[in-house]
Amino acid sequence: MNVMTRPEDLAACAPAGTFVETVTAVTHYTDHLFHFRMTRPAEFRFRSGEFVMIGLMIDGKAAFRAYSIASPSWAEDLEFFSIKVPDGPLTSHLQKIQPGDAVLMRKKSTGTLVNDALVKGKRLYMFSSGTGIAPFASVIRDPETYEKFDELILTHSCREVAELKYGQDLVASVQEDEMLNELFDTTRLRLYNSVTRENYPFRGRITDLIETGKLFEDLGVSPLDPTIDRAMICGSAAMLKDTKVLLESAGLTEGANNRPAEFVIERAFAS
Ligand code: A2P
Predict the structure, then answer these.
(1) In the prediction, which pLDDT does 270 show?
(2) Which amino acids bring their CB within 6 angstroms of ligand 1?
(3) Which CATH topology does 3-106 take?
């Protein structure tokens, strides 16, 4: 298959409504996960937590997939976190990109994992599994999140320990960043990891940890309370569905951009 990666070639045939951007860095975390950075078009605006369509020109046709933007809205470049699907129409090729290669990005971003879709609260939970952590990489670096909530709890659950590294590096880098610490108190952010298919001090699906109360015990916080707790959820379709049931049974109501409430879900990736 022929994948067009030279910026000048791609610019000559990019579909209408797309930017052609250049990859600046690629990090492979596991056989299934990688992270990449690319240039940000000056005119591109987005809200932290939104997603956009990223694509490649493969055999003369543009192939796109929805990606959460992992960088915050103020960042100079754009970051993404991707799975590698062996036969995936896009990711089987995207995983081979190198710095200097060009990718397509549709001009409009959208999404529900945004501060605007939640009413103010004391504590914000960001429940993620696998690559579902990506939008939260953006949200935890947005000053607005710290203005709206006193406490930020990012949970990341994965099958294997190696998959946790991206989130751990990210939270450490946020907490060590002098500029971010001048803007907001990053000690108000906590990361909670759990693993389901390998030995790890914290074992189990996030849903089980919520249901048994172990999550709250480990964190030293009170159980979910609709008067103070808010949540964003991003993961597989099954994870979204099961987590939503637990939040609703705790009395939280699902919100949307036009109807802010106590929790939000991103369904764009739940195939
Ligand atoms: P498990 O290993 O028990 O399936 P995936 O890579 O399949 O998206 O899974 C990422 C993480 O989400 C895994 O730890 C997986 O646990 C967990 N998971 C899968 N389904 C659910 C669900 N319905 N509710 C909560 N967590 C889930």
Answers:
(1) 61
(2) 129-130, 157-159, 196-197, 205-207, 235-236, 238-239, 242
(3) Elongation Factor Tu (Ef-tu); domain 3 (2.40.30)
